[in-house]
Specification:
The structure is a homotetramer of 234-residue chains.
Chain A (H helix, E strand, L loop, with lengths): L4 H16 L9 E6 L4 E4 L15 E4 L4 E3 L8 H10 L5 E4 L3 H9 L8 H4 L14 H5 L2 H15 L9 E4 L3 E6 L2 H24 L8 H11 L11
Antiparallel strand pairs in A: 1-2, 1-5, 2-3, 3-4, 5-7, 6-7
C-alpha cells in the first residue's frame, strides 16, 4: 500500500464531489490536496471520467511537478495547483471546475459582486477575475502562467487567500481552495451558487448595489475568525 | 426519551424537506417548531449537514432563547425565529432558507409581484421585502433585529401573518411560516417557485401587470377561510 | 371492483406523470380521462399529494359534474375539464398543470410563438393565450368560465382542437388535451419544453421571426395526418 | 444473431446516453453509427421511446438509405445522417437532439461564439448555423436537403468536419458527429453546455468578445493533434 494512501483517499473523495454537486460534465475539473510535511501533492489524473476514478489513480507529484508515484499523467492543470500551494502557504486543497454559472462570469470577465449575505457568509470581497493573459504567457508556460495571473490579481487587489478562497480566471473558469481538498470543492459549490444568485439578482434589478460593509463584516466574522459563533466550531 | 420527542421529530422531518426540495445546499437553512403549551421551540443545530442530522440533534430553547435541552448550539438565527413566535401568535413553524430565486429577489430588494393564480392561491399580496437594516441594527443584536425588520414591514404594509406567510429579508433571503413546521417549509418551496415564475414572467413581458383583485380573492378564498372548497379540507 | 377500474387506472397513471416530468410541485395539477360510451369522466381528487394517490382515489363524475363514484371531492377544476369534453368531441384526456415556464408565458399574457421545428412537430400555430376574465366571470361560475375562455379563444382564432392541443389561460397556466389522458400529459411536457425554448430564443435574439409556413407544414404533416411518415404509425 | 450485432450495440448505447444526459424528452433525438467496411449504418428506429429501446431494434440501412436489416422504420432523419457519412469521410457516428439551449440558438439563428476555454477545448470556431432552407428544399427531399445545408455552411465557412464536430440547423436544432457514436453524443452534451454558457455570458456582459486566437490554439491543440498533452492519449 502506498505511503500516500491517506492523501490519495482524501483527494479521491473530493474529486467525486464534482459530479455529485454537478460542477462539471465528463472529465472536466480536478481537485488536489497537499501533504506539506512530505512536500507532495495528490491530484486527479488527466482525462479520466469520474465513474472510472479510483483512489489508487490519484497521481502524486512534488512541488516542482515531478512525478513521485502513479501510473497516469497528472491533470494538465497541475502547474497551476502547485504554484498556488507554493504561494498560498496555509491552503491544503485546490479545486478547478468548469461549473456553468462561474464559467459564464469568467467569460464575461466580470467580478461577481457581493450583493447579499450568502456571499458575505463566505468571503469579504467580490469574487475577483484575473486579467486576460498576454500572448507571451499563453504560448509560454501556459498552466504556470494561469497560476501567476491568480497571484497577480490577489496582489493587485490586496486580497488575502484566507479571506477570499476563490477566483475566476478570465475566459476560462473558477479556481477555489481551502484548508483541505474537501473545503476546496465545498467552495466551488458555493461559488457556483453565488454566481447563479448574482446573475439572477442583476436580471431582476440591474442597479442592485453592493451590500454595506457592516453587513459583510457581520456575516463574515460571525462564521470566521476568533469571535465566530456560527456553526459548531469545527 | 425526551419529553419533547414529538416536537423534535416534527422539526427534524421539516428540516429534511429542505434538501429534498433543493431549497439550500450544505448546512444552509433551518426550520423550527413551537410547542405553545410547553413554551418551547425546537430548532436545527447550527452548522450541521442535513445528511448527518438526527431527530435527537434538534435543540430545545425557550422563548427567551435559553437552552432547555440539547447537546449542540442552536441555529444562529434562533432569535429571529423566537421573535416571530412571540409576535405572530397563531404560527407553529418557521423556516429560513437560502433558496436561489428567493434570495435573488431579496438581494434585488424587490417585492415579488402577484401576477398569477399560483401566487394568489397562496397569498393575497406581493411577497414583501424588508428595509435594509441600519448600521446600529447590524452591529447590535443582529438576529433579533432581523426579526424586528420583518415585524416592521408587516406593520407598515398592514399585512396579516395568517394571510401572508412569507417575507424576504433585504440583502439576505426568505423567511416563511405556517401552522406547523411542515407548512412553513411547504411555504418555502412555494415561495421559491413563485420567485422563479415571477422572474421569468418579467423577462418575457417586463410590463406584466398585477392580477385583478377579483382574481386574487377568488383563488385565495377558494382555498382558505370558511368558504373554501379547494383541497380535502384538511 | 369498480366498473370504471380501467378508466381510473389510466387516469391515475397519467396523473403520476406530472411529478415524474416535474410539471408541478405538491398537489398542483390534475389529469382527467373520459369514457365516452359510459358518459363519465375520471379525475384526480382535489388536494391529494401525488405520493399518496392510488388508482381507487380517482373520482368519477358525469358531464354535468355530478359525483358518480368516489370517496373524495373531485379536483376543483372539474368544470373546466367537463366543458372541454362537451365541446371538443374527439378528445379523450385533459391535463392542467402549473409548470414553471408555461405559467410564466400565461402570466405574461403572451402567446408562445412558433419559432422552430420542435414546436411545428406538435402544433401548427402559436400556443394561444385566452383573454383575461371579466369580474363577472370570476365572481360567477369561475371554473366553468375558465373553460369558456378556452372555447372563446379557439373560436376567435379559428383553431382546431385536434391541431392545437394546448392553451394558456391568462394569469393562470396551461391546459392541454389529447386522444387519451397519457397524450394530454405528454402535451403538457412538450408545452413546458416549447415554453422554455421560446423564452431562451427571445433572450438570445429578440427579433427571431416565426418560422415559414412551408416548414410548419412539413414538420406537422410528416408526423400527423394521412401522409405521416414519422414515428411507427401507432 | 445479426452480423451487425456489434454496430447495433454501439449505436444502442450511444442512443441511451441521450436521456441519461437529458438531451431530449420522449422519443426526440437519434444517434447512428457506420461500419465503413460493410458500408452500412445503424440508426435508431423512428418514434420509439428510449425506455423501450433494445439493441435489436437498431435499424441497419445502406448509404442509399435502403433497409438492410430491421423490423422497424429507421429514424425519419436517416437521409441527413447518411449524407453526412458520404461527405465527411472520417466520421463514425452522428447524433441529432433537440436539447434546449442548442435549439434556442438554432431558433435564434445565431452561431454560438467562442468566448472561453471550455469552447476552445472542443472546437476552433464558433458553432456554425446553417442558412434557412428555401421553400423548394423544404417541399422537396427535406431530410436530404437538411444534410445539404450542413455541407453548404461548412464549405462557405471553410470548416473542417474534424475540427468542428457540431452544427446548428437553423429553426431546427443541433447535429453533432465524431469518430464513433459515443463521441457523437459526447459532442451533443458538450454543445448543450457551451450553448448554456454562451447564453449566460451574454446576459451578464452583452459585449463579451471572442477569445484571442492564441488562447483558442493553445486549448484546442493541447487536447487535439500530434502535440496533444491533455488526457491519457486514448
Amino acid at each position: 500500500m502506498s505511503i500516500y494512501q491517506s492523501l490519495k483517499e482524501q483527494v479521491y473523495e473530493a474529486n467525486m464531489e464534482i459530479p455529485r454537486q454537478k460542477l462539471a460534465i465528463y472529465t472536466f475539473g480536478n481537485v488536489s490536496g497537499i501533504d506539506r510535511k512530505a512536500g507532495v501533492v495528490g491530484i486527479k489524473p488527466s482525462g479520466v471520467p469520474y465513474d472510472n476514478l479510483k483512489p489508487s489513480d490519484i497521481v502524486i507529484v512534488d512541488l516542482d511537478n515531478q512525478l513521485v508515484e502513479g501510473n497516469m499523467r497528472p491533470s494538465s492543470d497541475t502547474k497551476t495547483h502547485t504554484l498556488l500551494y507554493k504561494h498560498f502557504e496555509h491552503i491544503g486543497g485546490v479545486c478547478h471546475t468548469h461549473s456553468t454559472y462561474a464559467v459564464a462570469w469568467a467569460q464575461a470577465m466580470r467580478p461577481i459582486p457581493n450583493m447579499g449575505t450568502t456571499h458575505a457568509d463566505h468571503l469579504v470581497a467580490a469574487v475577483p477575475v484575473t486579467d486576460v493573459m498576454t500572448d507571451e504567457m499563453i504560448t509560454g508556460d501556459y498552466e504556470l502562467e494561469t497560476g501567476n495571473q491568480i497571484l497577480n490579481i490577489f496582489k493587485e487587489l490586496n486580497l488575502s487567500p484566507e479571506e477570499v478562497e476563490m477566483v475566476l480566471v478570465a475566459c476560462h473558469g473558477p479556481f477555489t481552495w481551502g484548508k483541505d481538498p474537501a473545503k476546496a470543492v465545498y467552495n466551488a459549490t458555493v461559488l457556483e451558487e453565488l454566481a447563479k444568485m448574482a446573475h439572477l439578482t442583476l436580471t431582476i434589478n440591474p442597479n442592485t448595489p453592493t451590500i454595506k460593509q457592516t453587513l459583510i463584516d457581520k456575516h463574515y466574522f460571525r462564521k470566521h475568525g476568533k469571535n465566530a459563533y456560527y456553526g459548531q466550531g469545527c
